[in-house]
Design brief:
single chain, alpha/beta, Isopropylmalate Dehydrogenase, 11-stranded mixed beta sheet, two-stranded antiparallel sheet
């Protein structure tokens, strides 16, 4: 049975939402859970769940209690005396706080007591702890955050979504290989297409980095299905299955999409509440809006896999609700069961 270590102290709504999501995942996916953090606080949340049930929360649309018998679930609590806060210098904090929740959660994977780690706190801390605690796969210069995003057709993977603000063409080439292996293994895409995020479709567009990686992918000998450059306005049309870029561009694109989505949802809610007629239309449209929201809601995808380290690390959004954490555990479970790391290693041996 797959065991997932979870940093229970990371994220805006920790530890309550983290523990709720972890228990929910144990209930739905049959995984073993190792909750790492301040033992007293975690046990208090488990006691609450035992009495009142899981507080499920999906983006404010679906809220209800889920009754659960904790005695039927395999949940372990590991005490962590320290927590790395969002504003701390990552490298220094990882070295000084060896008993922090994220470090001990990664250590659980390194020691073999857990198969994967899920963290919703500082992305930098999760990446640094994974690098120090697990190490890189042979042949990989730097790990990349592989983020799954929706399109009107099927999901695609963007990497790097923020791990490396500065990249070499060789790193982007490795990202393309890792992304291709990921979507083949986890999503079952037979011949995934790869595109380079750029300001234009033409081969000569963009800076030196993207022009060089374009040539490298065009001449690739690894059997990747390279389809050329892809503009930001095209990626959500399902133009390609894997989109590569440096972490600076990827993170800016991600935050822009998040902000735009939030703005549009807020505007729709305002319009549906503007007057009596709008409210009636809103009530009639609610089932349709729920279906659309489910397709675009980041919580459905759970978290992003950190590809390139010797272990499975899933980085969840800092605002993760219990539903997002539950799905992040699902992502970790799928990565373990499909052996994505072993398949990536085969390309670089």
């Amino acid at each position: 049975m797959t065991r997932i270590a979870i940093d229970a102290m990371g994220g805006d709504y920790a530890p309550a939402a983290i523990v709720d999501g972890a228990v929910w995942a144990a209930l739905d996916y049959g995984v073993q859970i190792e909750l790492v953090g301040k033992e007293d606080e975690i046990n208090a949340e488990l006691s609450r769940i035992s009495k009142k049930g899981i507080n499920s929360n999906r983006g404010g649309y679906f809220k209800h209690k889920i009754k659960v018998d904790l005695s039927n679930l395999d949940i372990k609590v590991t005490n962590a005396e320290e927590v790395i806060e969002m504003g701390e210098a990552v490298g220094q904090a990882i070295r000084k706080k060896r008993k922090s929740s994220i470090v001990l959660a990664v250590d659980a994977v390194s020691s073999g007591s857990s198969d994967a780690v899920v963290a919703a706190g500082s992305t930098g801390a999760a990446m640094a702890a994974s690098l120090f605690g697990l190490g890189r796969l042979t042949g990989i210069e730097r790990p990349a955050i592989a983020l799954t995003l929706p399109t009107i057709k099927k999901p695609f993977v963007l990497l790097d979504a923020g791990a490396n603000s500065s990249c070499t063409p060789e790193m982007l080439y490795q990202f393309a290989l890792m992304g291709t292996t990921f979507v083949k293994s986890v999503y079952g895409y037979e011949n995934p297409s790869v595109g380079v995020l750029n300001i234009g479709e033409e081969a000569g567009k963009g800076n030196e980095l993207v022009q060089t990686i374009y040539k490298m992918l065009e001449e690739n000998k690894d059997g990747m299905n390279f389809v050329g450059n892809v503009e930001g306005k095209e990626i959500f049309k399902g133009t390609c299955d894997v989109v590569v870029c440096d972490g600076f561009v990827g993170n800016v694109a991600l935050k822009t999409v998040e902000g735009t989505s939030s703005m549009l949802l807020s505007m729709i809610r305002q319009e549906f509440g503007a007057n009596i007629i709008s409210k009636v239309i809103g009530l009639l449209a609610k089932p349709f809006m729920k279906r659309i929201y489910k397709r675009i809601n980041y919580e459905e995808f759970g978290g992003a896999l950190l590809l390139g380290v010797k272990g499975i690390t899933v980085i969840a959004h800092g605002r993760s609700t219990s539903y997002a954490i539950k799905n992040a555990v699902r992502v970790a479970k799928e990565a373990v069961e499909t052996g994505v790391n072993k398949k990536i290693s085969e390309f670089f041996q």
